[in-house]
Amino acid sequence: MFTKPIHTKLLLGFLFIAALFLPLYVPDSYMFQIVITSLLFAIATSSMNLILGYTGQASLAHGAFFGVGAYVVAIMTKAGWSFWIALPVSGLVATGIGFFIGLFAFRTRGHFFAIVTLCFGVILFQVAENWIEVTGGQNGIFGLDSATPIPFPFFGPIEFSSQPAQYYLVLAVLLLTLFVLHRVVYSIFGLTFMAIRNNEELADALGINTFATKMVSFAIANFIAAIAGGIYATILGAVSPSAISIMITFNFLIFLILGGMATLPGAVIGAFMIPIIMEFLQFMENYRMLFFGALLVVVIIWFPMGFFGGLKTINQKIIAWRQSNTSEDSNA
């Protein structure tokens, strides 16, 4: 019988192969766009999982940093800069803005922190909507080119104008994001994140610099969210204030709750599956939101750790049941 690590490796390998061949089975360009957007949302939701799920800080400005990344990439590429330069710059700009916000927000805790970040998110939305000379106001910035081609020896440049190329670009960034977050979460530094989440006063008493630790978690999460936003802008070819609105934050929050907080696969499951499910429920028209609300209530009550957390709980119960049967048989 396979051991648990082998099962895990097989599952990850299967999912990786399925992701590689997914473009062959997407029926049309519209659904392909939904898949690409869902993967981008999975990147942003995974970064929100770091600050909320692992560090326990409910930042309601996360969608704003996603929008900041989109606007920075749009402004810089419109000015003639390469996408590959604009993308990391967008992450650094979001990190800098987040550092400024964190200086004030992390002086509060709990729901007060959530309210402060919500207020800053609204401020950033108002800036995007009213700074017409830079952001284009309500019209936004449109006519953006696709990502700059990458020169490749012997094979020529790799272009990102087609949907399959954009899909593999987003998939690569998602895999890199999950790798980085895995290394961070399961490091000694990641344990300090979870110590603050579980009991911030105790963590402070043990000598953990809780303010600096939360700032680091906030910075990493904001940087990744901005990267996702920057790719989002160039794939759509436009950006508007809706990309920085509070609804984006709440969408990420719902994806995270349904998928499973404090689990790396949960954020991806929620962000990838929910938009696709909602598309398949288009025939329900306005009633689909009624179905979605009922689904959210059911998950919160019976699966408080989300879909992936629920699967883990069921798996643990099955393992415990098998072990108990094995021990009974050996005793007999």
Write up this protein.
By secondary structure, this protein is mainly α. The chain has a single domain, classed as ABC transporter involved in vitamin B12 uptake, BtuC. The protein is built from 14 helices and two strands; from the N terminus they run ααααααβααααβαααα. The chain has helices at residues 4-21, 29-54, 62-78, 83-105, 111-130, 132-135, 163-185, 188-198, 200-205, 210-236, 246-259, 264-280, 287-302, 306-331, and strands at residues 141-142, 238-239. It has a two-stranded antiparallel ribbon with strand order 1-2. Helix 3 packs antiparallel against helix 4 (83-105) and helix 12 (264-280) crosses helix 14. The model has no long low-confidence stretch (mean pLDDT 91).
Features:
about 325 residues; mainly alpha; ABC transporter involved in vitamin B12 uptake, BtuC; 2 strands
Q: How many individual helices?
A: 14
Span of the ends, CA to CA: 23 Å
The appropriate CATH architecture is Orthogonal Bundle
Morphology: globular
Main sheet: strand order: 1-2
Mean pLDDT metric: 91
Q: How large a portion of the residues is in β-strands, by DSSP E?
A: under 5%
Describe the biggest sheet?
A: 2 strands, antiparallel
- Assigned CATH class: Mainly Alpha
Q: Give me the count of strands.
A: 2
Poorly predicted tracts of residues: none
- One letter per element, helices H and strands E, the order comes to HHHHHHEHHHHEHHHH
Provide a brief overview of the structure.
This protein has helices at residues 4-21, 29-54, 62-78, 83-105, 111-130, 132-135, 163-185, 188-198, 200-205, 210-236, 246-259, 264-280, 287-302, 306-331; strands spanning 141-142, 238-239.
